[in-house]
Amino acid sequence: MPNATLQPKRTVSELKELRALTGNADGAQRVAFTETWDKARTWMREKLAKLPVEVHQDAAGNQWATLKGKSEKELLIGGHIDSVPDGGWLDGCLNVVAGLEVLRRIASEGAPPVTVRLVDWCDEEGARFGRSLFGSSACSGALDPNEVRNLTDRDGIKLVDAVRKYEIDLDRALDAKKELKNAAAYLELHIEQGPVLESLNLPMGPVLGTFGVERHAITFTGQAAHSGSTPMAHRRDALAGTSRLHLAIREIAVRHGGVCTVGKVTTEPGIVTAVVGKAEMTLDQRHLDARTLAAMYDDAKRASEQIAREEKIEVAWKKIWQIQPFPFHSKLIEMADAAIKEVCGASHRLPSGPLHDAAEVCRAGVPTVMLFVQSLRGISHNKIEDTKEEHLEMSVKALDRLASETMKWISP
Ligand SMILES: [Zn+2]
Asked: How far is ligand 1, taken at its centre, from the CA of residue 92, in Å?
């Protein structure tokens, strides 16, 4: 009986226990590198102490629990116990608490065929210093300590000093890379944080990968002029550039099956009686396929140049940030799909818009997949974030099933 001891209801009650311990009327308060976060991690260590596992914190502050198996090859299950301020009760910690239940089940059956490790990544959210994926990007080697050293929080405290309090020496953080040496597969269960599964009336779906992102600032420059004395035909209206480009990028997104967003527009002089002389907009484009993402970027750039010509204005682009897509492992996606179908009856494969620690593990070359469970109203990073308890229980079962299949798959 493979699942004899799995108790998905215990996961739900432990999630409530964690909420009571580390939340308040405004939501979850487990911001990384704070006392409440530390309290949550101590709570987890107390749970882990009842299992035959070795627990340690690595050089980047990630907390690992290792159940030795017959092989050195490792199955990793991971999530993050940290939250945003006033966060939801499930984002991040569902993965860790469900992983704990799966670890209990596996441990109850004696030494597993491969080594199984549960990891609580350090500071996924980046809520205090504005740098997400701290611990997992140290493991992948993508973290540059010098880039984050002097980031400051609201009180002017530097990251390098804040992390020292939690026994992390920033200059040694990349030593955490060695934790992935024997990793053969990585599984992460997470709430969807979007509306797709709910709109399909499905509890769960396997994740195809995380979107790549192109983020740019685009400035149109025309000529500021009097709103009364300048006839329409004589205007060089910079806002016409942003307005027309905004409409164009919506079509580009639909045509390529991606998402494109203009989140901010500012104008100068920005008064009611002047034609706009300078208009700046942000553009955020996301797609799972690198070539298609590049095509969306090219299309937007070409559209902006054509609009500038037609409006007799100038356009300039400046890169804000960019990340490649991380498609997950095709065999693991198949296995995740099968596990979900067994538990829930149906499944729907979907990409992830938000980044997750799984992207960093994938970057490090470890075969990776995520499972999404439905989010009610698609809301997250908010105290009203919620998922039906029956779906939470299904998600623990699906993760458990996938863990068993993955152990077979990576067994030597
Ligand atoms: Zn999360």
From this structure: 4
Ligand 1 centre to CA of 94 (Å) is 9
Residues forming a β-bridge with 54: 66
Ligand 1 center from residue 189 Cα (angstroms):
10
Task: Output the CA torsion 272→274→275→279 (10° steps).
Answer: -70
Could you tell me the sign of the dihedral formed by the alpha carbons of 197, 200, 202, 205, in that order?
negative
What distance in Å separates the CA atoms of residue 204 and residue 157, rounded to the nearest whole number? 41
Distance from residue 307's CA to the centre of ligand 1 (Å)? 39
Task: Note the pLDDT tens digit of each residue in 12-24.
Answer: 999 999 999 999 9
| C-alpha torsion sign, points 136, 368, 346, 198 | positive
pTM: 0.90
124-163: pLDDT as tens digits: 999 999 889 999 999 999 999 999 999 999 999 999 999 9
How far apart, in Å, are the Cα atoms of 374 and each of 90, 200, 206, 329, 371?
Answer: 11, 10, 11, 22, 10
C-alpha 190 – ligand 1 centre gap (Å): 7
